[in-house]
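User:
I study polymers; will you set down one protein's sequence and backbone structure tokens?

Assistant:
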Amino acid sequence: MQARLGTVLGSATATYWYIPAYTTANALGFLVAGANSDIFGRRLFLLFGNVCCCVGFLITATAKEHMQFTAGLAITGFGGGFCQMAMCSIPELMPNKYRHIGITISDGFIFLIVVIGPIVGRFAIDSGGWTYIYYGGFVAQFVSLLGIYFWYHPPKHPRGVEWKEGLKGLDYVGALLVIPGVCLTLVGIINTTYLTSTNKLVIAPMVSGFALLILFGLWETFSSVKYPLCPPRIFRSHNGREFTVPFILAFIVTMFYYGINIVYPTMINVFYVTPTTPRSEVLLLTLPGNLGLVFGAMLLICFGNLIGHWKWSLTGSWIGLTLFGGLIAMVTPYNKGAMIAFTFLEQVFFGWAQYESVAFTQLGVHQHDLGMSGGLAGVARYAGGSLAQAIYTSVLTNSQSSRAAITVPAAAIAAGLDPTAAAQLPAAFAVGATALAQIPGLTPEITAAAATAFQWSYAYGLKMVTLSSLAFAGIGLICCLLCENIDAKMNDNVEVFLEK
């Protein structure tokens, strides 16, 4: 089983695509399901999404090599985009004042996954039983499929149009432009994580993707299609304050989740875990960020209505997210307790801000555009994640390597190593103990000095990542202040279309 895992993982380049394959496909699924579920109802899209996920889990679980593994993740992600229309389906069955609760509940199973996932995953890989995770995913998804099929029978909503009319008025041209446009753009962005910015595999997808997105924008603005995927009117409403500003906020807020999931695991691997660290401690170190997210979401459920003043509670959560996210820039190899605390608190405020920002996007459109709003918010979440991964990975890699190239040889030379041998140290540290053993003249003292300098180069890189995130935090704070208050919309109305 372990040998099979090595075969599936493939090269380092192959592993770069595992998470993006899921998130990119998820964004596309969200986009397709969103507006069209307003026409044909949510049920069919949720059923289709669950079927896709079942197929994707089986493909991943039975993968013999990395291409099949990646394909399974992509299929699961595409189906997951359809399934996440539950983020619209649940809230529309509840009074508006509980909209934030419905949105949070729709991610309830994800809370369990983000907390226990790293622990279960590490045990599964160590034991060679990783395939059972995906078989378990198949079982859970199949149970969900049966539940929706037998018990979820909503009225046709919210437009209530006939099938024939809906099929005639679908935005086929828009779909043919936006789906490859989003896909190519994200592919180009993701490729920057392991290729230079001048590489043709970066430039070609991004140029062609942005060109298609520009054509899509023109089509949506000037065409007369009856049911457009992305009508400009929702972006212009109330000078953009009703939907556009929350949409931008939903795009930015996800960047903090992906950012902390680059910064904090790097701290664990470089600073806190050694070959002698007990497994129990390693597993406990995975918990602070994810527990913070769940705790923040639960605080929103329990105290959102009690606090009210929704615009200002969103602004307050964003300030907390910015404050504790910024304090992570104080990282050193030796302040583990402070970094764990800041990571937890940053994710607490993120958990509140993320779900409240989605509530703002949902209440920024008329009910018959709820699916469209949810689809666009979903694209924003995952596109923002892909962009964050590319930006933060590039910042970390470039800043850490440039600092290590200076400080690691200097520390080794000061400890007595020949300058020629010292120049080989930064590359050797990146590879591991085998490469270090091939450098002549190393002593335990020299290795310790160089290792300390190498850790400090990572502290510098993580600091640069954190400081770069503050620029996005500033834009997000401006968006919070520009958002239109939704207090009057948080009422007892249940905004669902009843066919008869």
Observations:
- The chain has two domains: 2-171+225-399+460-489, 172-224.
- The mean pLDDT is 87.
- The first helix runs from residue 2 to 9.
- Residues 2-171+225-399+460-489 form a domain with the Growth Hormone; Chain: A; fold (CATH 1.20.1250.20).
